[in-house]
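Re: [help] complex structure
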Amino acid sequence: MRRFYSALVVLMLFTVQTVFAQTQQGFVRTLGRPDKKGEALSNVMVRAKGEHNYVKSNDDGTFSMPLPGKRNGEAYSLQQVQKTGYELNEVDFVGRQLAFSDKVPLTIVMVSIEELQADKQRIEDYAYRIAEKNYKAKAELLEKQREENKITIEQYQERIQDLHGKFEKYQSLIDGLAEHYVHTDYDLLNEKDREINICIENGELERADSLIHILFNPIGVLERNKEALDRIEQQIDEANKIIFQAQEDMAAVLKQQGKDAEYLYQLYTIALARFDNEKALFYIETRAELDTTNPGWQFDAAYCFQEHNNFDQAKKYYSRALEIYGRLAKDNPKAYEHELASTLNNFAVLYKNTQHVSESETLYLEALESYKRLTKSKSKYKSKDRSKGYEPDVARTLNNLALLYFNTKRYAESEAMYLEALEIRRRLAKDAPEAYEPSLAMTLNNLAILYNNTQRLSESETLQLEALEIQRRLAKNAPQANEPDLAMMMNNLAVLYSNTRRLAESEALHVEVLEIYRRLAKDNPQAYEPVLATTLNNLANLYNDTQRFTESETLRLEALEIYRRLAKGAPHIYEPVMAMTLHNLAVLYKNTQHLVESETLFLEALEIYRRMEKESSQDLRPDMAMAMNELADLYYKTQRLEESETLFLEALDIYRGLEIDNPQAYDSYLVTTLSSLATIYYKTQRLTESETMYLDALDIYRHLAKSNPQTFEPRLVASLYAVGLLYRQQDRYLQAISSFEEVLALYRTLALHNPSYGKWYENTLDLLSQLYQTTEEHAKYYAINEERIPLLKKHYQDDVTAYQKDYARALGYQSYQCIFVSQLEKAEQYAREALLVDTIQIWINAHLVAALLLQDKYDEAEAVCRQYKDKLKDSFIQDFIDFEVAGAIPEERKVDMERIKKLLSE
Amino acid sequence: MYLKKQVKILWFLLLVVMTASAQTQHGYVKTIGRPDKPGVFLPNVVIQAKGMVNPVISDSTGEFSICIPEKKEGDPIVYLRIQKKDYELKDKDVIGRQYVFSSKVPIIIQMVDIKQLAVDKKRIENNAYRVAENNYQKKLKELEAKLDEEAITLDQYRLDLVALEEKYDKYLSLINDMADRYARADYDNMDSIDRQINICIENGELDKADSLIHTVFDPETVLERNQAAKREIRERIALAQSIIDKANADKEAILRDIEYAKRVASLCENLAYEYIGIDDWKSAMKCFEQTLTIKKNIYGEESDEVMEIQQLINKHKQ
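Output below.
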């Protein structure tokens, strides 16, 4: 299958203003009171104007409020500050213009409503008390003055009224005063401040007054500060000038950097043209390092490293590019989504090539999402082909993802992806056949291979035919570009036909493929000789299957010649396939009885395998073991049992090793080795070893036969048969019987479907009947022969002379057996038939006599008896004894029997 | 009625002034300069940016003006369409990318003649193929010579051959992109040496290009030089920034002092009311005077805050 990916090179110009999200830090605390400092306040919900989301203050009262796009000093305001049971110390704090700063945190002061009211009440009480005291003192003074007549009653009344008025006015102020002091934040006040405030709160005005005047001279402070402020502004000015200059310098450096980057790119292309890839990589890497925030440069470096199989470096640069593009695409999808998707795609390919399947999958899925987003973001300004521009990418990513799933055997997911890709590519190909038909054909082909692997062969065929039709058309128009894929697809279909035994169709296609590859290989041997050799092998297999060994041989020899040549250039790649070809050719020679040639080739193949096993990272043990099996079989057939045994043992060793890692995968091969060894041991009379091997083989055969009865039941039964023979030879009759009974059951069903098993079925019946006879199991013996006789009869009818004796004997034995089970009529019938079939077998007359006698047909019995009296006297007597011992003779017949005995002794 | 006074905290704001009047982004379209043919201004190019109802068209001198309602200096601007028959953009990515809207800095749009581009590209490609082929043959001969002299084993020779062919293939796969890039190079914005270098590369005179580059550029030290320069500038900025931070902190301390003075003024004022409450007018007036002095220093003689207190004093003096 063709792995289809195209990585993308992206070059671009950067003129972008990046906008970073800015954050205003903040802190919420409670109001500081004289007796209690302000404390951090958690769970306060704060929301800025124009923002949708609240931020909540943490346990330490802090919060971070993102204000995207704000610069230092820019104005913002709060919309809401909330916590149950609390209110803002300054009500107008919400809505007030605040200056954004990413350095200076914002402090929000809140106050507990409950405490606030208690404090207010307390302050009001104080103030009221003081006012009242003052009022009373003044009223008393007036009273006294009036009593002492220092003032007139009118004056007194006027003054007392005035006093009262002032008192009321003051009362009305108390609320405001209390409100003010209750909101005073003692945490902000220094010591002096606090003292003054406390004095005022407690109504100690004189003391407050003197504190203000004595301890603080704000005028001096203010004058000092004015000078300092000027100095500070100057410093900031100068610093800003430095920064401005630095920024200018930076701009110059960046401009130079752009130029440097251009030189590096030029050097990179020059180095590539000189095939100095190490230098090229150095240049492109240096460019990436010049500015690690330039995603295009990172991407180029990553791509270059990927191309040169330096996966670690490629990973490093792709990670950087991905991180940057991810961020940029989030803010500005229109401009960067494409680059993001390309990076994801290439990164996914990288991971796939380094066998990081799950990472690769994740990235492919992300790339897919990204391409899908691009497809959706159609703009009316974009020309038609551009809006369609990303559908091919979506399809390609789907195809790649499907391949990934396919390679990890997740066929259902793979199929879903292929189907989606197929739908898109069909649509694309409809509008622009020229551009998209090649990839449509490829997807059809890929999906067909999936169906092929999941045994949905007819679906696979339909798709392959469709793919082939497209590809033929393409190849007709542009042979150079499309013939290779055409050949590949034809080859795939040919393999399918060969697997479904449509050999003629398969052959026709193979021949066509071969022709194309021969042509291609002539122009470009390096690219096409390997596939040419593969095709030669495939076609040879086909000829082999149809018994056309000469043609097969020719092709295999050609393939071998190619592989021998290729293996010289790249032994690690081509020696294994060369060995495989040697093996196949050797098998062919073996089958055509060219045993010497076969052996030579097997030995060469084995030599390669043995050498490669030490050097190569590939696991060639399965192939090696197979070659050993074949050669061992060859030795066995040519009676070189010792060599055969050695090789079989070596193969066995390998298979047992393979089984540890991959149980049951090699069962079918292992079992062949086991039974072959068992046969050799049997032949060389090492019965114990033979038995062990057979039993091992049987275990595996039973298991295999369950899943694939068609192939393995015949082999299971053959082994069972051999084991049965082994037991019989050692007089272990019961074990032999149980083996053969199993054999019988299997052959019975096999023979039903396939008459060629009839012979074995009969043999088994014969063997079992002999065994039952030996163990004197009459009932079983009788039953077995009942089964066997009709079969023998059929053979006898087909071929009288060959089966005459066997059939007659079988009938004779069965007639004897019938008497034991009191089937007297049958006994007579069998005996009579036996005598008709083979007149030589006169001993059967003894059974006939017995049968007649026991049926109360004395006269007939006597007639037979008289006829054969001389020849069969002993047989007659022996039969009677047998039946008597077995209790088969009823009392009323004993008289007749005595009469016969008497007659015989005359 | 006495005025209720509260401690006020003033916030000093650095307000960025934003003017709302519509601004115009000027620009012009030019073709790229080629070695034998400097760039020309391109009329009749259709240009449309996001937010524009109708596109504008460049005039006979290639100039155009874009006016978008509500666009302000420094806002992002995105071009959606820049079209002219037989021409394409030098950098396709101009479309969709964010630029900064400016009424002062004109935008320069560079376009290339599609036919010219194809011709140049083909020529550059052919040269590149020729060079690659020559180099390939040269290396091949070297390898064969080595083999003949038995400087390398047959196996080594085969390995080297495969590696060489791989490199050759990889280079060929890159030629298309490279040729496109060089064919789009703008010679108008190059100094003479850069022009020479580019011409050499386009013509496949790589050795000459290589030595020219090396006369003006050292790839081995460029990274070090670049990073040292950046580091030095960053250090300067950091130093200046630390000065600014310190100054701002000092300023804040002073502003806190002023805040404090305001609070004292407010305290004095409140104390004055307290005195009035107990009918001690002399002390009250003294407090008002004090308040007045402080406020004069904070807000200036003529300020509203000062006048307000002055009025209070005048009123109560009576």
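The radius of gyration of chain B is 37 Å.
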